[in-house]
Design brief:
Layout: E1 5-13, H1 19-29, E2 33-44, E3 49-54, H2 57-70, E4 73-78, H3 84-101, E5 111-113, H4 128-138, E6 144-145, H5 149-156, H6 162-170, E7 175-178, H7 183-186, E8 188-194, E9 201-206, H8 216-229, H9 234-252
Parallel strand pairs: 1-2, 1-4, 4-5, 5-6, 6-7
Antiparallel strand pairs: 2-3, 7-8, 8-9
Helix pairs in contact: 1-8, 2-3, 3-4, 5-6, 8-9
The chain binds adenosine-5'-diphosphate and (4-amino-2-methylpyrimidin-5-yl)methyl dihydrogen phosphate (MP5).
């Protein structure tokens, strides 16, 4: 039997922690075939981002045509889009897809938008113009948006509690999960889920104490898309996605890869590993 197909539209991370590296590994781990449309190539490691090369608009459109004309995409996830042109092009595709499927059709693929604006290392991956394009064009057509607290504040244009921000952003149309919480302070993470017209609900789970968290947000939004591609309802998909992230963080918790914030594990831990004779320092 065929696996469901999920499409990530995102940038690359040469260090293999975030972006398409995280997305495709997460899809594979969760039994989903992953297709990818690359929007930007970053030179990046655990310490930061040293170069960003946006992919030309025509090449993004050609990749979208290739995937969407051929594969039965069951969920779409967007990560780093990087430019206003890319945000607008994706929003237009989503509108086109909803027209093609009929706006009430159950076969319309859900669209998970991770509004990537700033990397864990602090690098800016989308400026003020990109932020505006998300608010004006992509959020209104998304199924669910997954900002962390900083991204939620940026998108809302002001400070506020995660539940207030989730409720406000849900007013633009999509369901919203404001991720994070304050694990250092409470030992617990709280993601706030707000669906349009409903009160926000806290989704709590134990925090894994580690600084190896580069790629966490990409992994979460991909896991959410993978569970939606399998047909899970949103709340269940969000809970499973957080549990997947926690499991991967627990795996890489004590790793010492790189000089900065190390990667979340993208290993498939329920597979037997080949016997290794090599260890890295
Ligand atoms: N230390 C942690 N332990 C367990 N889960 C975590 C931890 N840090 C973040 N998460 C979870 O990872 C997911 C992604 O959240 P977050 O880290 O806020 O994304 P981002 O990388 O965009 O900042 C959320 O479900 C969040 O609760
Ligand atoms: C290409 C790319 N996409 C997304 C992120 C955000 O991930 P993180 O918040 O873990 O740095 C990133 N650093 N690089």
């Amino acid at each position: 039997m065929n696996p469901p197909v999920a499409l990530t539209i995102a940038g690359t991370d040469s260090g293999g922690a975030a972006g398409t590296a995280a997305d495709l590994a997460t899809f594979a781990a969760l039994g989903v075939h992953g297709a990818c449309v690359i929007t930007a190539v970053t030179a990046q490691d655990t310490t930061g981002v040293s170069d960003i090369h946006p992919v030309p608009h025509s090449a993004i459109e050609a990749q979208l045509d290739a995937v969407l004309d051929d594969l039965p995409v069951a969920a779409i996830k967007t990560g780093m889009l990087g430019t206003v042109a890319a945000v607008e092009a994706i929003a237009q595709r989503v509108v086109k897809l909803s027209v093609a499927h009929g706006s009430l059709s159950a076969s319309q693929p859900p669209v998970v938008v991770d509004p990537v604006l700033v990397a864990t290392s602090g690098a800016v991956l989308g400026g003020e113009d990109v932020r505006r394009a998300y608010v004006d064009h992509l959020l209104p057509v998304a199924t669910v948006v997954t900002p962390n607290l900083d991204e939620a504040r940026a998108l809302a244009g002001h400070d506020g509690s995660p539940e207030e921000l989730a409720t406000q952003l849900a007013g633009l149309g999509p369901a919203v999960v404001v991720t994070g919480g304050d694990p250092a302070a409470t030992g617990e993470c709280t993601d706030w889920l707000a669906e349009p017209g409903q009160p926000p609900i806290p989704l709590r789970h134990p925090a894994v104490p580690t600084s190896n968290d580069h790629g966490t947000g990409c992994t979460y939004s991909s896991a959410l898309a993978a569970h939606l591609a399998h047909g899970a309802p949103l709340r269940e998909a969000a809970e499973h996605a957080a549990a997947y992230v926690a499991r991967q963080l627990a795996t890489s918790r004590h790793w010492t890869l790189g000089r900065g914030r190390g990667p979340i594990a993208h290993l498939f831990t329920d597979q037997p590993s080949p016997t290794s004779t090599k260890e890295t320092a």
